[in-house]
Write a structure and sequence with these properties.
46% strand, six-stranded mixed beta sheet, elongated
């Protein structure tokens, strides 16, 4: 390097216009000043044909900036990497400053033949001179194949009941190959034969993560349901084949089971009354026992009536009841309430139990329905309020000699149909056609009084229900118990007007319509403590039992018409 000044004018000597030269020696960094580290991979064991990524670090180990170079990737059959090995990829390395590092990667593919291979990289100078080459140490890659195999499958119990729970257990899944396996799925199948295929019924599955060579993955137990029909079945557990798997014939494990019917026994039923009157209600008692050694599945009982002693599912269906799961030796009781046929005669009742897809029926119990008999007495009630106190008058008339009678009177809440005792009266003995009448009363709390609109009375299990003093806002509902559609309704308790009924009521019954009028309005202002006593005769309860439309018609002394309620159409 030097410096010169331009000549000027008549410069006497121009040879001295430049300085003495300064010598500078420039040294270059060759490829041999770049260090190539051993390539790195996520795992050194690869499946044949699998693509994996190698990352190589190139470092400038000199104290000057390097020149640009080329990095070449090689695969070798020995542990020494040279440029004479199989070239698989290359990349450019730009100039690097002092201590600077560049990272390059290559996506390599493992050979299709299992074995041990060596991978590395060499950096080559820009001029391409081999004398300036620098290669990395070798990376060892093992190319192999996975091989998944399951432990033996066990089933417990080996003889389950239809529909019951069964446990399938596999201790572990093993990779006995020399390469990683990929993600796979363990599937459980049910088959009619021992050859388990993907065409069989799949019951459950479990996702399995990749496994390293010579490792195991614990599986455990899965709970399934036995088939609904008895027979021999085969459960299979199969793991889906993974890529390049060495052997796929060992991916399944099979176990057989013999499915049997539940050991549920239904005892011959009994009845609460073997000689009820026609149309009367009685109770059928059925008992189910689990005689097996395992918990049974929920099932159902079906009740039938037959005209012969053999009970089948073709007989008259009466209803059904659910039986929950029963532990071994546990007993379940069912007691449905049934209605005897309206026609007198001999009938047979039985129970069938549903086990799997089949029905098993018990022996029958005989029921003889007799002709209906009227109750041994007639019970009438009336109720009203006077000076905030509730009164219930009852009259009981014996049709046959009766002994030790007791009558309880009640007021009933219209909202909830809850009964509240007014009084219990010991009547004693009554001769045939003899009557006994008594007025009972009770003072209720004010918050309860406004809800008490109905009264009733009972005699030793018999009851006669009548609406209360206040006329209902809507048509009185049918007080009779509901009966199945195929049974005729039971006769209602009779309503008996008496000779003491002193109001006028004009009725004209035509088909399903009542028309009429009356002068009952005089009784609107009586009772309830307003100073005018009410006539305490039977017409109060009788009148209150009539539909409100007819009551309003009588109040106005006008003629009107409305439909007859269903429960009144059969009455005289």
């Amino acid at each position: 390097y030097g410096a010169c000044v331009d000549s000027v004018g008549v410069d006497i000597d121009t040879t001295n216009n430049c300085s003495a030269p300064v010598t500078v020696t420039v040294d270059t960094v060759s490829a041999r000043d770049l260090a190539v580290d051993t390539p790195t991979v996520s795992r050194s064991i690869q499946t044949v044909g699998e693509t994996f990524r190698m990352v190589v670090a190139v470092r400038n180990v000199s104290d000057a900036t390097s020149e640009s170079a080329t990095l070449r990737f090689y695969r070798s059959t020995d542990s020494t990497i040279t440029t004479s090995d199989e070239l698989i990829d290359s990349g450019s390395v730009s100039a690097l400053g002092t201590s600077e590092t560049a990272y390059l990667y290559s996506d390599a593919r493992a050979p299709s033949t299992p074995g041990t291979y060596y991978y590395g990289a060499c950096v080559v100078s820009a001029g391409g001179s081999d004398s300036a080459d620098n290669c990395s140490p070798a990376l060892t890659i093992i190319a192999g194949r996975p091989d998944l195999v399951l432990d033996p499958l066990t089933v417990s119990p080996v003889s389950p009941e239809t529909g019951s729970e069964v446990e399938l257990r596999i201790d572990a899944l093993h990779n006995q190959g020399n390469s990683w396996s990929g993600f796979t799925t363990l599937r459980y199948y049910l088959s009619a034969d021992a050859a388990i295929t993907s065409a069989d019924k799949e019951l459950a599955y479990d996702l399995m993560a990749p496994m390293a060579p010579s490792t195991s993955d614990d599986i455990g137990t899965v709970t399934l349901q036995a088939p609904p029909s008895p027979g021999t079945y085969y459960y299979g557990a199969c793991v889906d084949a993974v890529g390049e798997e060495a052997d796929t014939d060992n991916n399944c494990s099979v176990a057989s089971v013999t499915v049997r019917l539940p050991d549920l026994l239904v005892l011959t039923p009994t009845v609460s009354d073997g000689t009820p009157i026609a149309g009367a209600r009685f109770t059928l008692h059925a008992t189910v026992v689990n005689r097996g050694s395992s918990r049974s599945q929920p099932t159902s009982l079906v009740y039938y009536r037959s005209t012969d002693e053999t009970i089948t599912t073709d007989d008259t269906w009466l209803g059904s009841g659910q039986v929950s799961s029963l532990d071994p030796h546990e007993v379940a009781h069912k007691s449905p309430t049934l209605t005897a046929p309206s026609a007198a005669g001999t009938y047979y009742y039985g129970v069938c139990i549903r086990v799997g897809a089949d029905d098993y029926c018990t022996e029958s119990v005989k029921v003889t329905a007799g002709d209906a008999q009227p109750p041994p007495f007639v019970l009438r009630t009336e109720c009203f309020v006077f000076h905030e106190q509730h009164f219930v008058r009852f009259t009981v008339t014996a049709r046959v000699p009766l002994t030790s009678l007791a009558v309880s009177t009640y007021m009933v809440e219209g909202r909830t149909n809850t009964r509240h005792l007014v009084r219990r009266v010991e009547v004693g003995d009554l001769a045939a056609d003899q009557s006994y009448s008594k007025l009972t009363s009770r003072l209720f709390f004010s918050h309860m009084r406004r809800h008490l609109t109905t009264c009733t009375a009972g005699v030793e299990g018999y009851a006669s229900v009548r609406p209360g003093f206040e006329p209902p806002a809507t048509t009185v509902p049918d007080p009779r118990p509901q009966t199945p559609a195929d049974q005729p309704p039971a006769e209602p308790d009779p309503i008996y007007p008496t000779s003491q009924d002193n109001f006028q009521l004009y009725l004209d019954l035509q088909d399903t319509t009542i028309s009429g009028g009356g002068d009952y309005g005089q009784y609107l202002s009586c009772g309830a403590g307003i100073g005018t006593p009410c006539p305490w005769q039977d017409h109060i309860s009788w009148w209150s039992s009539l539909p409100s439309d007819l009551q309003r018609c009588a109040f106005r002394s006008t003629t009107c018409a409305f439909p007859i309620p269903e429960y009144l159409r059969s009455r005289d």
